[in-house]
Amino acid sequence: MNRPETAIAYIGLGSNLADPVAQLKSARTAIRALKGIHELAFSSLYYSLPMGPQDQPDYFNAVIAVETTLLPMVLLRALQTIENAQGRIRKTERWGARTLDLDILLYNDQTIDLPDLTVPHSGITERAFVLYPLFEIAPHLQVPGHGALADLLSQCPLAGLKRID
Domain for residue 150, yes or no? Predict the structure, then answer.
């Protein structure tokens, strides 16, 4: 029997409700428990100001690198199941408060443009809360269509981002 092809995926984690640090730790455990997933690296946690409406709690963010046999859409659905299990309520407003947000940032060197999934994740090049933890675990990464991660980072101010030790 042939072994399924593997891919390296980078997943962004964010939370600002219901004990965000515990939400991220629980999400990491749930991701690691998925069949077809092997964790390669997990960044430090980062504290960041919210995007969009400022009348919400600050965020905690991280990035996990995984080796996976799951196809991109299957991975997306598995991550959405984890979000829902941790109390995620999807609203029409963008950038609102949430218990958990899991985003596929990169999937190998693929560019994916589907109604439900865009990879590299839209906004990846301007978001300090994505670039800094991603750089921590994969400093030599190339972002398809955007170039070297180090170059992107050099053009992205911290904007209140703080690494939590």
Answer: yes
Residue 1 lies in a domain: no
From CA 66, how far away is CA 84, in angstroms rounded? 21
Whether 1 shows a pLDDT value over 60: the answer reads no
**What are the φ/ψ torsions at residue 93 (nearest 5 degrees)?**
-70, 145
* Domain-located, residue 2: no
Q: What CATH number has the domain bearing residue 159? A: 3.30.70.560
Given pLDDT bands bounded at 50, 70 and 90, which one contains residue 94?
Answer: low
Q: Are 15 and 100 in contact (CB under 8 A)?
A: yes
Structure token digits, residue 103: 């985003």
pLDDT tens-digit readout, 10-60:
999 999 999 999 999 999 999 999 999 999 999 999 999 987 777 789 999
Say how many domains are in the chain: 1
Residue 72: its pLDDT value, please?
97
- Cβ 11 vs Cβ 105: under 8 Å: yes
- In this structure, is residue 77 part of a structural domain? yes
Please tell me the distance from the alpha carbon of residue 91 to that of residue 111, in angstroms, as a whole number: 27
Contact 32, 56 (CB under 8 A): no
Residue 145 sits in which domain range? 7-164
Residues marked as catalytic: 88, 98, 101, 103
CB–CB of 143/156 below 8 Å? no
